[in-house]
Amino acid sequence: MYKLIACDLDETLLNVDAHVCRRNKEAIEQLAKLGVKFVPATGRGFRAIEKTLEEINLKDKKNEYVISFNGGCITENKNNRIMKFQGLSFAKANELYRLGLNYGVCIHVYTKDIVYVYNADQEEINYLKLRHVYKVINEDNLDFLKGQDIAKVLYGKPNINYLRKVTSDLGNIVKDLDVSYSSNRYLEFNHKGVNKGEGLLWLANKLGIEPEETMAIGDNFNDLSMLKAAGLGVGMANTNPDMKDQCDVLTEADNNQGGVGEAIEKFILKNKR
Predict the structure, then answer these.
(1) Distance of CA 171 to the CA centre of its chain
(2) Phi and psi at residue 81, in whole multiples of 5°?
(3) In whole angstroms, how far apart are CA 208 and each of 4, 186, 203, 229?
């Protein structure tokens, strides 16, 4: 039986209003009774998902965990205890920020507690309000963050082909980074070797769980590493079409219809009835 489920949040566990639907909540409650770990695995920071943890009754719980910043941080939910953190160097984060100014993109810079946002339009602000503690900036460098831990940097633009062109244009500048795409609008930069798949394997090993005893659920390219690392990689019905063929299975329901609950019911709960 699967002992640990790593699950993406935005466009996977959460509906369009950034809440957890009843079907998903009920399935997660049943997992807890079976002793199966349900681990949110998100590109956001661990402090940015406290409302979600509260909705699924995992907030401030001992022996429950979160994989955040695309694997850059792993925490125990009780007191948000950091077990592992690996971010970007200040020099690399500052380089990415300054280069981003030339591409007309929105830029996010993630510290442990807040997201600093440059060049965000109203649509982006509305999206952020539901998900992050953020601060709008208009700086030409990140000198104001010297000495702080920086988890990751991302570029945002609702044109994934443009973002892929930016990646190609950056060339060797990003060869020592882990690069991924999310929400069909973000180009994300993490420290080399930092991704959700490595985060899943690290946590599973820490808990004495074999990779084949894990399941991962996601919808976009920053989830692909954990879908491949897990014993079963489940893509949502709304998974990016360009990666559907790389998922082991796909749900029939999308993120608004309880696709996570469907996967839990099908691959775990039905075997216990």
Answers:
(1) 24
(2) -75, 115
(3) 11, 34, 9, 16
Could you report the per-residue pLDDT of 146-156, keeping only the tens digit for each?
Answer: 999 999 999 99
Per-residue pLDDT reduced to its tens digit, 93-108: 999 999 999 999 999 9
Q: Give percent above pLDDT 90 in the chain.
A: 95
pLDDT at 273 over 70: no
pTM of the predicted structure, to 2 decimals: 0.94
Whether the predicted pLDDT of 271 surpasses 70? no
**Quick one: pLDDT at residue 272?**
62
- SS3 string of 72-87? CEEEECHHHEEEEECC
Q: Which residue has the tokens 């910043």?
A: 69
All residues at 6 or more sequence positions from 7 whose CB lies less than 8 Å from its CB, including other chains: 13, 38, 39, 40, 41, 216, 217, 218, 260
